[in-house]
Design goal:
Distance between the termini: 31 Å
Number of domains: 2
Structural class: alpha+beta
Number of strands: 16
CATH architecture of the largest domain: 2-Layer Sandwich
CATH topology of the largest domain: BirA Bifunctional Protein, domain 2
Order of helices and strands: EEEHEEHHHEEEEHEEHEHHEEEHHEH
Strand order of the largest sheet: 6-10-11-16-15-14-13-12
Helix content: 25-40%
Largest sheet: 8 strands, mixed
């Protein structure tokens, strides 16, 4: 099948092939079939090219004309022809004059979605949706983001882990878990690799890192929640304090955004109208107590009873910090112990708070991090304060019985990062195949 075809030329490479004969593989994006001319726009994953064909006239057997009359939108085609410079053509000032057209796979007439289709319908036909460059851009950016993360963590001595996603006991947070049948007994889909990261630290692995699936059985229908998403997790041993974790995340995100700007900045601006900016270090920091006081001054939380930020509070705080500093990021630190997990370290001088943080970007929380409590007896005490049973956590707690170093880490939602980076309306658009309370297909 492939032996009879000339090598493929990507659309992005056509400017360097003017006056040469090439073969383009792609999908039919647009058809304009006029009386004398046929204009067909073919799209591959790198761009679009106009194919221009003059009809042969009545009584002449023209296989190219016949193919273009038969073809439908989104059909897969191979077009061989000469690359011609033509400044009148809006698509890059080039056109392809065809010598051979092959319809590889004819699309059914009447596409189920178009550019104006709503989100749910587009998700039903995600494979068609992703053929649009503005939709697929997210996946290209995601690839660069992950490559940058792996480059930074490798340079800083991290070991990449692949932790289990099936657990014998529920994960550490209070969120709902998915229960599955595991050979006749219950198992749970992991809400986080947190316990396993700490187990690796206890095992003498100084710094660990993972990009992997996370499952949350929360019936949330917001633009930033999903029941399955990709988490970016890191844990660092022998830290001097939670500041070491925040400084690491600053280095990580600056490198990520610098790479995205370099590789995709122009494309993102062209397709989305978004300028990728690389933030300055250090990022602003504000304690939760200070944040609450400032927000209440502006009228948020009129009852004065909240001890955590809701989405409105996060947005307002992000706007305040941006107005004052010009910075889109802000670390919120010193969360009250009562709303943080039992394993977050509490400072000796004020055990009512924790050495923890959230990182907000553009007014949305993308990261939770903390220094962990590494002393066995204090973990047991804090577990008891939360009213939790130590028995199901025995294997986790055993990690702290034989000398575990001070450590801390973070968990970052990759989908939220992409959503904010590209200014997408929802995390649904920042995910290959979204999973939510009402979506298990496709």
């Amino acid at each position: 099948m492939t032996g009879s075809h000339t090598p493929r030329t990507l659309v992005r490479d056509l400017p360097g092939r003017v006056d040469e004969t090439v073969t383009v593989y792609g999908w039919v994006d647009t058809l304009r079939l006029q009386r004398r001319m046929q204009f067909v726009v073919v799209r591959d994953h790198t761009g679009q090219v106009q194919v221009t064909h003059s009809r042969a006239g009545a009584g002449v057997d023209d296989s190219i004309e016949a193919a273009f009359e038969r073809v439908t939108l989104e059909s897969a085609v191979r077009v061989t022809g000469k690359v011609v410079a033509n400044e009148v053509v809006r698509l890059g000032g080039l056109e392809l004059v065809p010598e051979r057209v092959e319809i590889v796979s004819l699309a059914e007439a009447g596409l189920p979605i178009d550019a104006h289709t709503g989100s749910d319908r587009r998700l039903d036909w995600r494979f068609l949706d992703l053929r649009r460059p503005e939709r697929r851009l997210m996946l290209d950016v995601q690839t660069t983001v992950e490559q940058a993360m792996r480059r930074v963590t490798a340079a800083e001595g991290f070991t990449e882990l692949h932790t289990p996603k099936l657990m014998g006991t529920a994960s550490e947070s209070g969120a709902e878990v998915f229960t599955v049948d595991y050979f006749g007994r219950p198992a749970y889909l992991a809400q986080s690799p947190q316990f396993y990261k700490q187990m690796a630290i206890a095992g003498g692995i100084d710094r660990v890192f993972e990009i992997g699936p996370v499952f949350r059985a929360e019936p949330s229908f917001t633009s930033r929640h999903a029941t399955e998403f990709t988490g970016v997790d890191a844990e660092l041993a022998w830290i001097d304090g939670v500041e070491d974790v925040m400084a690491f995340e600053e280095r990580l995100l600056v490198a990520v955004l610098a790479d995205v700007r370099e590789v995709h900045g122009a494309t993102i601006e062209r397709l989305s109208g978004v300028e990728v900016t690389v933030p300055e270090r250090p990022f602003p920091r504000i304690t939760m107590a200070d944040a609450l006081a400032r927000l209440r001054t502006g009228g948020w939380d009129p009852t004065g009873t909240r001890i955590d930020l809701d989405p409105e509070g996060e947005r307002t705080l992000g706007a305040l910090i941006a107005a004052e500093t010009g910075h889109e990021f802000v670390f919120v630190t010193g969360f009250p112990a009562e709303i943080r997990p039992f394993y977050h370290l509490r400072p000796d001088d004020d055990p009512t708070v924790t050495e923890s943080f959230d990182l907000l970007w553009k007014g949305v929380e993308i990261t939770t991090g903390a220094q962990r409590e590494h002393r066995h007896e204090r973990l047991l005490a804090q577990l008891g304060e939360k009213g939790l049973d130590a028995a199901p956590l025995a294997s986790y707690l055993d990690c702290f019985r034989y000398g575990t170093p001070p450590h801390g880490g973070l968990g970052l939602g990759l989908g939220r990062l992409l959503m904010l980076l590209l200014e997408l309306p929802s995390i649904r658009d920042a995910t290959f195949l979204f999973r939510g309370p009402h979506r298990l297909e496709p």
